[in-house]
TrEMBL record:
Name recorded for this polypeptide: UDP-N-acetylenolpyruvoylglucosamine reductase
Record bears the keyword Lyase: no
This protein's pathway: Cell wall biogenesis; peptidoglycan biosynthesis
Active site positions, chain numbering: 163, 245, 347
Gene from which the chain derives: murB
Amino acid sequence: MTQIQLSTLTTAAVGGPAGSYSEARSEAEIIDAVRAADDAGRPLLIIGGGSNLLVSDDGFPGAVLKIASQGFTVNAEDSCGGVSVVVQAGHNWDAFVEHAVKHAWSGVEALSGIPGATGATPVQNVGAYGADVSQTIAAVRTWDRERSAVKTFTNSELKFGYRDSVLKRTTVNGSPRYVVLTVEFQLPLGRMSAPVRYAELARALGVEQGQRAYANDVRREVLRLRASKGMVWDAGDRDTYSTGSFFTNPIVTGEVAARLPEEAPRYPGGGDGLTKLSAAWLIDQAGFGKGFGLDPDSVSGGRASLSTKHTLAITNRGGATTADMLAVAREVRDGVVERFGIELHPEPLLIGVEL
Ligand SMILES: Cc1cc2nc3c(=O)[nH]c(=O)nc-3n(C[C@H](O)[C@H](O)[C@H](O)COP(=O)(O)OP(=O)(O)OC[C@H]3O[C@@H](n4cnc5c(N)ncnc54)[C@H](O)[C@@H]3O)c2cc1C
């Protein structure tokens, strides 16, 4: 049996061998494969598009299961209630968004161009350009490995937060308690987008923040902005061989935020007077500019670096290992602590490694 390298299954193109590898193309196949691994007491790594994973160079010794179920079903569609659509976990996220925009299902257009599978979107409450999936998810059907039973979560039961949900909080070493089978979205019908909440996107569209635009235009502008930052997966662009943003934007108290220079970007960070900071700005201002790490004398030997288009992505320039990616991440994290006293935390799941 040939051994599958996780580097071939991840967008960062790093990671060692899988103990065993299989693909599940339907809900029944997912449940069967998960049960088989659990009954055998084997560690299990669930993988969708591999765009939010950084796996050890030693690989993953257990069973790696790729979720490859495809398609979606429209449950109901009318002008009052909108459309209720149930998407299979393995269905490519951006293909679904493209379909939604084309068919005037509004609400996910700002999430265009995010790599990966739909089943992973509720895990970290995928978001971009002022939107996240918590705004449109109605329910998530899962396989509960602890109880060996199907469990459906409503939106409020998922306890969505910034890049967070119950599904993520119950995942240990990439092994989730709840394996997502399908995701149900509730989307209003119409050619107009949800209100555009992100200033840069509103400017690009020529609308005020909070106004709506044509969803088609929103998708086009989001894809353009994302591509300019290396945030649309492209096999020909090394700046996209990453996990997207490597660090989450830190959420700090007003007191900590007040210590930063006046020009530091600040956003509301949820309740209790918390402030969300820009990790990209902190990294840049701590002296780590675009392309940091490209120098062959740097910690990674130039094999891994910050993207040349954006300071928040750590990229594989060709031939990088997971250790190389982490070496860059550590240098950046430590530099930001030294300069601002703020610790950045990784956004991707780290499997078999620590930062
Ligand atoms: C170029 C680029 C740009 C990106 N931009 C963004 C962005 O704008 N916003 C954003 O939020 N993210 C972004 N990401 C990160 C990533 O694309 C998202 O987090 C995406 O949802 C991950 O999907 P995936 O299928 O690739 O998940 P994977 O990387 O395969 O898995 C990620 C985690 O989810 C778990 N998981 C996957 N499928 C299931 C399932 N069916 N059931 C239970 N657990 C599951 C895995 O076990 C793992 O823990 C970007 C990544 C890249 C490479």
